[in-house]
Amino acid sequence: MSTNYALVTGASMGLGKAFARALAARRQNLVLVARSKDKLETLASELKATHGVEVEPIQFDLAQPLAGQQLAEQLSERGLHIELLINNAGFGLEGQLWKLDLKRQIEMINLHNASVVELTYLLLPAMIEECRGGIVNVSSMAGFQALPYAALYSATKSFLTTFSLALEQEVRRYKIKVVTVCPGRLRPEIEDKERKKFPGGEQAHEQIVSATVRMLDSGGGLLVPGWVNKVASFAERFFPRRLVAKAAGKMSRPD
């Protein structure tokens, strides 16, 4: 019988690291993916020593073309059977679309969307065959509205949210759980006194992960952590999308 693993992308820091620690504490074997080899190997050693689980660190850049397909091939070649897919890797860009580096913006589309679709497409059939498994897609509150000066970021997160929610309904009959988690502003790992305060506060990585794991255990669904975010996502339904974008643009316009 093959060993089952959870695959966590963007595992070297932030939410990815928190997911890895939480899952390891549940005796879940892990495949950790990120660009930073040193950080991955350090985390892998920690989790092996603390929880006695199998941890496979894979240095990989999912922002490159066809990266999801190439990673899936590596997993297959190494005989790593994935029963839980955590699509967490991501980054944000702020500024005027035409002034931001085009290559970096395309990489963001690849990372947030293309690689997620590729990994899901290639790892899902085995879950369907076994009628078990889970997928967690880490989206964002930014996916609920158009955000001027983060236009492409909000667009990729909107795609990810709608893709994930639709997928949840498609795979439910096969007993596969899908969680779409849409956090707001996350608390930085290192305290930054210069960082501007955010309405409603910032959320700790561990709180997001804990809520996500609970929802996964309960069958999946849409998770909007924090009451401020819940109210905001609900209230937006009653205003024209163009007016919401206009208001967001006034608040985020560069000085």
Overview features:
alpha/beta, 8 helices, 7 strands
What's the helix and strand layout?
Blueprint: E1 4-9, H1 14-25, E2 30-34, H2 37-51, E3 55-59, H3 67-77, E4 81-87, H4 102-130, E5 134-138, H5 151-171, E6 177-181, H6 205-217, E7 221-223, H7 227-235, H8 241-252
Parallel strand pairs: 1-2, 1-4, 2-3, 4-5, 5-6, 6-7
Helix pairs in contact: 1-2, 1-6, 3-4, 4-5
Give the fraction of residues assigned to helices: 40-55%
Q: Indicate the multimeric state.
A: single chain
Q: Radius of gyration, rounded?
A: 18 Å
Largest sheet: 7 strands, parallel
Instruction: Please provide the ordered H/E string of secondary-structure elements.
Output: EHEHEHEHEHEHEHH
Beta-strand fraction estimate: 5-15%
Mean pLDDT: 90
Strand sequence of the main sheet, in spatial order?
3-2-1-4-5-6-7
- How many runs of DSSP E, i.e. beta strands? 7
Please state the structural category: alpha/beta
Poorly predicted runs: 191-195
End-to-end Cα distance: 59 Å
Number of DSSP helical runs: 8
Shape: globular
